[in-house]
Amino acid sequence: MPPESTEASFTSLTTLEILVRLGLAALLGASIGFNADRSRRPAGMRLYATASLLGGLTALLMMSDRKILPEVALPTAMISVAIIVGLISLGLILQQIPTGRPTPGLTAAASLASSAILGVGVGAGLWRPSIIAGLMTLLILKGGGFLKGRSRHLENPR
């Protein structure tokens, strides 16, 4: 397998390469969201897949040729992703406040941000680290919930 490189510009990528990168970004996000859907959480597979796809597209735009996109658009795109994911995460937290849980929606917000960052990694061509981090995210979400459900010591004292 050739070494991963982020040196190629967006204009040198084929349509198939762009489709594979964005598809993998959406798939990684969807797998994390599927875990949330199974737990009947307010944010699910579609939201996570969309956030990850947004991150992947942002990374592809960051790689674009300066002739296509003005220099000011690149930082603006990254800031936009951060603001959008932050607002969605805030909405998740505010939606769960009436449930009375001690830390409502924080895990959902963190995993949604993780999903968007995974999309950025895949879009930038960093396949292996993104897949490994996605699998680790799933392990943490699934394993942490499994352990918390079986141990009274891990419960929040509030």
Outline of the structure:
It contains five helices and no strands. With 158 residues, the chain is an all-alpha fold. The protein is globular, with a radius of gyration of 17 Å.
| Percent helix range | 55-70%
Low-confidence spans: pLDDT under 50, at least 5 residues?
1-7
Quick one: how many beta strands?
0
Number of helices: 5
Beta-strand fraction estimate: under 5%
Succession of helices and strands: HHHHH
Radius of gyration: 17 Å
**Coarse structural class:** mainly alpha
- In whole angstroms, the N-to-C terminal distance is 50 Å
Largest sheet: none
Which geometry do the CA atoms define? Answer: globular
pLDDT averaged residue by residue: 76
Descriptive account of the structure:
The protein has 158 residues and is an all-alpha fold. The protein contains five helices and no strands. α1 runs antiparallel to α2 and α1 runs parallel beside α5. The longest helix is centred in the N-terminal third of the chain and has 24 residues. It is globular. The N terminus is likely disordered.
